[in-house]
Amino acid sequence: MKKISIGLALSALVLAVPATAGDIAKGKTIAETVCMACHNPATGEGNMDIYPNLGGQKEAYLKSSIKAYKDGQRTGPMAGIMKGMVASLSDDDIANVSAYFASLK
After folding, report:
1. Do the beta carbons of residue 34 and residue 85 sit within 8 Å?
2. Residues near 7 by Cβ (< 8 Å), separated by ≥ 6?
3. Which CA distances in Å does 63 have to 8, 10, 20, 92?
4. Residues of 76-88 as b/e, b for ≥16 C-beta within 10 angstroms?
5. Which residues pair with 39 in a beta bridge?
6. Among 56, 62, 53, 71, which residue's Cα sits nearest to residue 94?
7. Above pLDDT 90, what percent of the chain?
8. Comparing C-alpha atoms, which of 52, 32, 19, 49 is closest to residue 100?
9. What is d(CA 47, CA 44) in angstroms, rounded to the nearest whole number?
10. CB 34 within 8 A of CB 22
11. Can you tell which superkingdom this protein's organism belongs to (predicted)?
12. How far is CA 15 from CA 8, 12, 18, 21, 86, in A?
């Protein structure tokens, strides 16, 4: 019984630790090279009204949205463009650029 209690306690600890946040500095570099055609890397604002503002968005939302574009799960007028833009991004790159845009207020 004691082993089960210890196991449950350790499992709860692991689940309570948040996922590692992305590296903001590395994310800024990605924003300045990959995203800048449509999103201002200094503010996260869309360069035109049709492009969404990314600055200050929740990191988890940005991460899941970028992954969905990469995996072809998002549709809409910009889906094809976004899929091409994020195709070369690794999971770490996605976490980093998401952390960067989320850090902008």
Report:
1. yes
2. none
3. 30, 28, 12, 10
4. eeeeeebbebbee
5. 46
6. 62
7. 79
8. 32
9. 9
10. no
11. Bacteria
12. 11, 5, 8, 15, 29
Which range has the worst mean pLDDT, 12-16, 44-48, 78-82, 84-88? 12-16
How many beta carbons lie within 10 A of that of residue 52, not counting itself? 13
Which residues partner with 46 through β-bridges? 39
Please, which pLDDT band fits residue 13 given cuts at 50, 70 and 90? very low
Q: Are 57 and 47 in contact (CB under 8 A)?
A: no
CATH class, 22-103 region: mainly alpha
Among 11, 28, 22, CA closest to 104: 28
The mean per-residue pLDDT over the stretch 78-100 comes to 97
At residue 68's C-alpha, the angle toward residues 23 and 56, to 5°, is 45
∠16-18-24 over CA atoms, to 5°?
170
